[in-house]
Specification:
single chain; TIM Barrel; 12-stranded mixed beta sheet; 12 strands; binds S-adenosylmethionine; binds iron/sulfur cluster
Amino acid sequence: MIDPFGRHISYLRVSVTDRCDFRCVYCMAEDMTFLPKAEVLSLEELERLCGAFVRRGVKKLRLTGGEPLVRKNVMSLFRGLGRHLASGALEELTLTTNGSQLAKYAKELAAIGVRRVNVSMDTLDPDKFRELTRWGDLDQVMRGLDAAQQAGLHIKINAVALRGVNDIEFDELIRFSHGRGMDLDLIEVKPMGEIGADARLDQYLPLSLARTEIAKHFTLTETDYRTGGPARYFKVEETGGRLGFITPLTHNFCESCNRVRLTCTGTLYMCLGQEDAADLRGPLRASESDELLDRAITEAIARKPKGHDFIIDRRHAGPAVPRHMSVTGG
Ligand code: SAM
Ligand code: SF4
């Protein structure tokens, strides 16, 4: 699949549920209304949709959410998709998780062929963790990390940089992650979804500032390492570990975008930061053959926009797009 700007689309992210066992303050409002179950695709339908993308050349699949591991029976979807790994059609099957259920599923994920997981953890302070996630338990996530490493999964920690919340902890997060052989990505907060007046502006910390601070204590050497994602990676000489900066606001990375995103209702977003979307549930359900679906995918890719227009400042404190990150998945 090649879009109008000549970019090869080889990466599909799938939000398998909009529900979550946490309520992170930058991601969700406290009282979220979730989709009625009837609107959500069955796991079999999601598997068929993913299969269509794999046939069209998708090499990397990431399941996300909401929290992917709280979807009932989600392991049957992983198992089904794992077959594309075994056949060689798919190069990587992975997930982004808050880690709360990793202790339970790490072994099975590894057995299916998952090699890497992204675990979101913004702070090492249990009280702050509870405040940030509203419902989360840091100990449980730590047990998840242990189980994942025992199962041989490579872990990347994702931490959203939040002004006045975890900005004094970056050094500690670097030492902790690298000390355990895990990569660390710092992420700029994106203006997605309504989370309360002015909250976004308060949270936003440009990573250029974070990098300057970190560079006071660590030697950062830029590398050309890429994961197929938007991060720019640095080697931290003191720890030997990798540190990534994901900067949608201060550094636009759209020119190398290779991905599209599917929601659990079968809506395909060709860009995380734009409203345009294509309905794939209709064509999926209209026929048992994939002909209509294929056509809808082709039409959607032909509409992939050049890039997003995220911006957070005093005049733009509201969301750039109304949907929360948990809808399209991170
Ligand atoms: N529940 C899983 C998790 O937390 O890893 C997967 C879904 S979550 C939406 C995916 C990633 O998006 C997480 O790393 C989370 O920190 C990040 N995220 C959520 N809301 C965000 C926002 N407004 N800006 C930037 N990153 C955000
Ligand atoms: Fe849930 Fe992940 Fe959003 Fe936190 S960031 S509320 S864990 S979906």
